[in-house]
Amino acid sequence: MSLGIQKVEAQDAGHFIHVEWEDGSESRYPCVWLRDNCQCPHCFLRSAGARRLVFEDLDVNIVVKEVTMPDRKKISITWPDEHASEYEAEWLKKRCFSEEARAQMREDLFLTECHHWGSDLRLPQISFEEVMYNDASAYKWLCALKKVGVALLTGAATRQGELIKLGHRIGFLRLTFYGPTWQVQDKADANNVAYTTGKLCFHTDYPVLQHPPGVQFLHCIKQTDSGGESEVVDGFHVCNKLKKQNPQAYQILASTAVDYTDVGVDYCDFAVQCKQRIIDVDSRGEAVRINYNNATRDTVFDIPAEKVRPFYAALKEFNDLLNSSEHKFTYKLKPGDIMTFDNWRVLHGRQSYPSGPEVTRHLEGAYADWDVVMSRLRLLRNRVLNKN
Fold first, then answer.
1. Are 72 and 8 a contacting pair, CB within 8 Å?
2. Does residue 114 lie in a domain region?
3. 317 with 225: CB under 8 angstroms?
4. Do 212 and 129 sit in the same domain of this protein?
5. CA-wise closest residue to 203 among 138, 267, 258
6. DSSP code per residue over 141-192
7. CA atoms within 13 A on the CB side of 354
8. Structurally, how many domains does the chain consist of?
9. Which domain holds residue 59?
């Protein structure tokens, strides 16, 4: 961005700075925000990218004493206490308070673009080796994971430990009570319904945690000949359908705190309890996280008795939409495949498969937090795009 400044002036008794740009656009900046974000060494530690100015020293009613334009690439401000601040044009333009500029910044920082899908999903597929050793491929993978919510990595070795390598590629994995990784296979006295051969209904993992893992990895090491097909559904897409079809049901699921429980022994012994709303929403009422696991939904239900049946009716309608043939996507993992998906958005399940004297199906699973994944995505984007 090389846009220059045409004109700058103080407005509203010095509470705002008005900037006219060379392209004819205009921006208004509150002076309290400008003072709070002074970029001088006294106020900002550049080596850490962090503010040094303590909030106690900020006058929220501050006005500008003088504003000048040394050249078309910056503005200079003198404050009432004679402190001087300079702001680069490019820095200011990116932080314009217009709706258009704020929307662009949201997209740049958080990749807010979301591609909804149903049974027509075109599953993004990328080579595991390319993701591990090629930045452009790793960036492509994480972009697909963020926008589509699911992506398949192919060609990994059929042994345990490949997810540890993938974790190192993005940063690190999320440790839970089931360990840094966990083995999905038929086990005697299973401490989780996933460790059986039965059907797994659509669910998100770990809503019993206050902060459920954001991303899940499932690596197919061994696959059964019969059954064991995996299924995924775009929870945000289904939420939109429910909101249009039955707004009251949507509101019930977005406002009712559901009890979850998980008690047992694995990586260590645990007794976990949590309350979650099936649909977490933002300030606009849009779904931002699904917390639904029928297996770990507690028998305890901390709501008035008269609200129980309406809740069940709402959840039944949501569950029926999840299982609709137009919404779910079915596939069968092959040995060496790694399915990666957004655990806050995509619900997953599994069809049953025959049990036998030996292990016929073996997946290794792991989690990562979205903070870690988004950090790597931003770093890869800067690295890949700066090469072009």
1. no
2. no
3. no
4. yes
5. 258
6. HHHHHHHTSEEEEE---SSTTHHHHHHHHHS-PPPBTTBSSEEES--TT-SS
7. 6
8. 2
9. 5-98
Encode pLDDT of 290-314 as tens digits.
999 999 999 999 999 999 999 999 9
Q: Which residue type does 129 have?
A: E
Residue 209 inside a domain? The answer is yes
Residue 5 has pLDDT above 80, yes or no: yes
Q: Could you tell me which of 143, 52, 55, 44 has the C-alpha nearest to residue 91? A: 44
Is residue 388 scored above 80 in pLDDT?
A: no
Write the pLDDT tens digit of every residue in 178-199.
999 999 999 989 999 999 999 9
Question: Which residues, listed in sequence order, are joined to residue 215 by a DSSP beta bridge?
Answer: 342, 368
Q: Is residue 151 part of a domain?
A: yes
What is the bridge-based pairing of β-strands 200-203 and 215-222? unpaired
Q: How far apart are CA 234 and CA 84, in angstroms?
A: 52
Name 128's Cβ contacts closer than 8 Å, sequence gap at least 6: 153, 154, 155, 156, 162, 166, 336, 338
92 and 130 share one domain? no
Q: Look at residues 387, 325, 335 and name the one whose alpha carbon lies nearest to residue 361.
A: 335
Give the CATH number for residue 185: 3.60.130.10
The 200-203 sheet, strands edge to edge: 200-203, 346-350, 230-234, 328-331
Q: Which two tokens stand for residue 209?
A: 């945690």
